[in-house]
Design brief:
heterotetramer, A: 182 residues, Serine Threonine Protein Phosphatase 5, Tetratricopeptide repeat, B: 328 residues, alpha/beta, Hypothetical Protein Tm841, Chain: A,domain 3, 2 domains, 6-stranded mixed beta sheet, binds adenosine-5'-diphosphate, binds magnesium ion, DhaL_dom (chains A, D), Dihydroxyacetone kinase subunit DhaL (chains A, D), DhaK_L_YcgS (chains A, D)
């Protein structure tokens, strides 16, 4: 997926990380949210490699640190997720508009935050989340990249969706779909 | 994809195993997590650690040994290694004088090394290599680290071996980085095993000019023309960046990306050497060969380092690694 | 054809010129006729001369220097050199102790060296290297000389350096030849500049098994399968030919044909080493890399040499050439 | 031409040799037959390289040695040419039937020898020579090679005409055609 404007390994990296997580499923289920996020972060960090490994690893570790409350209401989810996204911004020295996964992750953060403030119902939250993720992902298409490998390509990167933005969107949409089932 | 491999998932493991066997006289290989380290640890020496995605061999594993690196952490092919590799490597080779990380400037490498460094509880410094002048100096992520990395590792490795302390090694590393410029071109893409197809498409009369070392596209596509014209473009970019004075002594390194025969690399060297000598620059050391590769990519890069007495002395100092050896 | 060259006719010239510049500390290049010779001639030493078509670099030019060859005569790409080259090289490097020609067994090489030898008026001997076991021992022209040549040159080179006389060098050379067996396979053809297209066609799932080093087809076409299976075929053929006893010490050389990355060569080494160790054979020395190449051909060969104390001592002796260097 | 069963350089080698000869044309014209053949042999030997360089070089040097008589009648030509072919046989340790240039050269030798004995007229000699060369060349097609690079291919060499046999035939036919003009 990052073949066009990256080095072609993003999906492999992600799959390696997800596979490692799957193997720990039984263990993770035993843990509270904080410990589970922490462990997931460490696992992603030590199995994925690449830019995305350090970023997603950092995200989950930070989410683990933020998840003190066992109670997972929308506000808690929003706070925890935001802590994760902020850690990516800090680690990657990047922000929205640089053609990275943050272009998916930040709009979702904003959507969660405003839905939490407005106490929106679950269906709305999940639908808004998917819209934000998808629009964010798509917004990377016409961007110039200023972070990550695609930045080396200058104008040649325009017209391609960022791999990290795309996989983040996919994952967030799958999560939203799963949550809407129960 | 035509490769001498058994399975996409086991390439790295099996290759490292072969490397470890073939060079068991000088290195040892740690399986979990992956890193290669020097067999004989000397006390009170700054420990040099580098690493990065695999697929650039002999960089970095082939540069572990006396007078150069203490450890190298290979990631998956073209994928930055993970922090636990650098942590464990550091714990293994640290010898009371701190750790110097030599990191090629790529987001993934930088961040993963950073995380390792943050968790480390011994003195440490990082030298960031960013010698690729195909990108402007003020590029948003900085320039990439490419074939100049070997030169940094050799010179700082010799200094560490001679007893220089951490601050001195760090300063020397930065000096070499600032004195070094590289630029490369590709005639073909490489094929990453996990991908199974060339990373980019390129026609028979195109050249990717200004490429990195991960099979990513270059700065621009050009028409394939004579070696003279192509090498001039590389040499000019380097010359404009470093602006060496007349009489300046330099090290000229022509690096192959893996699939370009020595016959062509020496031809490229001839053109580049001529270019710089015509400008009154004195080539005092040379290195020609496939050192910082991109798997099976055809193409080459040129690296120039402005040398002074200190750097020359360290370049000439004995080294015994799998890929670079003299004086021992 | 995608190559870093200026013109088909000038490739060899320009490449040799670059080689000569890059290694002017140890070699000199004679323009007319072509040969590369050692810079510092030692008196009363048997002079070792090899040669053959170009395109196998670093063989042989990259093996000229202290402890190895005194001169190398490169022909056009894959074309035997001409007798005047060997004559002039011999006259230049002969140092009172005679000349030893090291010749790979190909009709063209053999005949051209023969003509030179007939015209020479100093004592001379020839060691014919025929290590390629992909051909039967009783083949009508004898077996080809391939990657084992480097091993002959290293060991006999060290003996000559240590003062062995012509008869001793000749005898030692023959001993190394008899103790050495090689076999190779190709994943792709190479492209000879003058031809402008691959020498043979091969599909994506074919392997040429039992190839020489001139881009000629191999003994047979096989299906591309795992490295394990392919390397076993090479190793088995070598094992059956040399029939090493249990406990036999050997040198294992995995050679790349030019476009195969080190990552794959080390993987091949791992399989081959495992194969021989399982049979109780003791691998005491290893050499992995692109040494006897076929321009930009992808593929590899395996070479095994049965070592004794004398051969080990000479293998370990200091050597300083462009491609092989240790102890100096 | 030797791409199929050789290493693909035979024609290049030959052209390099012929080009060198062409450059010496003015010089060669001044010489007697013996000296001219000698010089041509040395030139081919030091410019062609490869198996064919040493063989054709030897051939011309031997022809130079054999060409003592300034008078070039058919018997002399046959004797001189035979000396050349014999030197190839000796140098190459080869004979007819091994899928080499000798499969062209030897039949022509035999044809010249018998035409010289029978005192055939020029047209007959030249026509026989062409027939012998062409049949000889064609005979290599179905042979197994036992000399030269093609010998490494075993059965795989069958079905291909030998490059040296082909170029020898071409050259001999061109010579015959030229001679028939005057
Ligand atoms: N500095 C950064 N900040 C945020 N995201 C980044 C940054 N650098 C890269 N990325 C994201 O990482 C993705 C690439 O991940 P991956 O392919 O695993 O790493 P690598 O670039 O090391 O090969 C990009 O598509 C982009 O979304
Ligand atoms: N031993 C030999 N005797 C006679 N002719 C030979 C012999 N070996 C090779 N040849 C001829 O030489 C030709 C090849 O010439 P060339 O391609 O120039 O040399 P090389 O085989 O060294 O590449 C073959 O086609 C064959 O006709
Ligand atoms: Mg990537
Ligand atoms: Mg990567
Ligand atoms: Mg040839
Ligand atoms: Mg040939």
């Amino acid at each position: 997926m990052d073949r066009a404007i990256g080095d072609g390994d993003h999906v492999t990296n992600l799959l390696r990380g997800l596979e490692a997580l799957t193997k720990q499923n039984d263990e993770l289920i035993q843990l509270d949210w904080s410990a589970a996020f922490m462990k997931m972060g460490m696992t992603l960090m030590s199995t994925m490699g690449g830019a995305s490994g350090s970023l997603l690893g950092s995200m989950f570790v930070s989410m683990g640190k933020a998840a003190k409350d066992p109670d997972m209401d929308l506000t808690a989810v929003s706070t925890i997720y935001s802590a994760g996204v902020e850690s990516i911004k800090a680690r990657g020295k990047a922000d929205i508009g640089e053609k990275t996964m943050l272009d998916t992750l930040i709009p979702v953060m904003q959507s969660l935050q405003s839905d939490a403030e407005q106490n929106a119902d679950k269906a709305t939250v999940l639908s808004n989340m998917k819209t934000a993720a998808t629009q964010g992902m798509q917004s990377t298409k016409d961007m110039l990249a200023t972070k990550g490998r695609a930045s080396f390509l200058g104008e040649r990167a325009r017209g391609h969706i960022d791999a990290g933005a795309r996989t983040s969107q996919l994952i967030l949409c799958v999560i939203a779909d799963e949550l809407s089932k129960n | 994809m035509k490769k001498l491999i058994n399975a996409v998932d086991s390439v790295l493991e099996e290759s490292l195993s072969g490397f470890a066997r073939a060079h068991s006289d000088i290195i040892q290989f740690n399986q979990q997590p992956h890193f290669v380290s020097r067999k004989n640890k000397s006390e009170n020496k700054v420990a040099l650690i580098s690493g990065g995605g695999a697929g650039h061999e002999p960089l970095h594993t082939g540069l572990v040994g006396k007078g150069m690196l203490d450890a190298a952490c290979p990631g998956q092919v073209f994928t930055s290694p993970t922090p636990d590799q650098m942590m464990m490597a550091a714990q293994t080779v640290e010898a009371g004088a701190g750790v110097l990380f030599i990191v090629k400037n790529y987001a993934g490498d930088v961040m993963n090394f950073e995380i390792a460094a943050e968790m480390l509880d011994c003195p440490h410094e990082t030298v960031l290599v960013n010698d690729d002048v195909s990108l402007p100096k003020d590029h948003s992520t900085g320039r990439r680290g490419v074939a100049g990395t070997l030169i940094v590792e050799k010179i700082v490795g010799a200094a560490a071996e001679a007893g220089a302390d951490l601050a001195t090694c760090k300063k020397l590393g930065d000096k070499v980085v600032n004195a070094t410029a590289s630029m490369g071109l590709a005639l073909t893409s490489c094929t990453v095993p996990a991908l199974g197809q060339p990373t980019f498409d390129i026609t028979d009369n195109e050249v990717e000019m200004g490429v990195g070392i991960h099979g990513e596209r270059g700065r621009e596509i050009m028409n394939l023309t004579t070696a003279d014209e192509l090498v001039q473009i590389l040499a000019k970019a380097i010359d404009e960046d470093l602006q060496p004075a007349k009489g300046q002594r330099v090290l000229l390194h022509v690096n192959g990306f893996g699939a370009t025969p020595l016959m062509e690399l020496y031809l490229v060297y001839d053109i580049a050497a001529h270019f710089f000598e015509e400008r009154g620059i004195e080539i005092v050391r040379s290195l020609v060969g496939n050192y910082t590769t991109s798997l099976d990519m055809a193409g080459c890069s040129i690296t120039l380092t402005l040398m002074d007495d200190e750097m020359l002395q360290y370049w000439d100092a004995p080294v015994h690694t799998a890929a670079l050896r003299w004086g021992i």
